[in-house]
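Let us work through a complete example step by step.
Step 1: write down the sequence.
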Amino acid sequence: QVQLVESGGGSVQAGGSLRLSCAAFGDTYSSNRMGWFRQAPGKEREGVAAIYTGPVSTYYADSVKGRFTISQDNAKNTVYLQMNSLKPEDTAMYYCAQSFGIGRWFEPYGYNYWGQGTQVTVSS
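Step 2: predict the structure and record it as tokens.
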């Protein structure tokens, strides 16, 4: 079993920054991919970014490229999402998720475990 705990969400004005954290507890050794997703009211859950381990590679949605950065601290079993130049359209509940490598990085079905989510609200 794996438990994922997100933190770092909040309310900011457009142009501001936030850093989300996702701490993983339990059997994390079998995972080779961690992802961040978001879901706004009335919309489908969408992939924001993902990071693969061994070797490290990262992927981003076009809408966040150049503004968001995903990273990991293996010693702390924690994945981060640094979000800069935030826009009102970034407003959503953000979830981290763990995958054993099934599916493409942006497909939610390929992830086995999900956190409870952290709200990000960007005002104009």
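Step 3: interpret the result. The radius of gyration is 13 Å.
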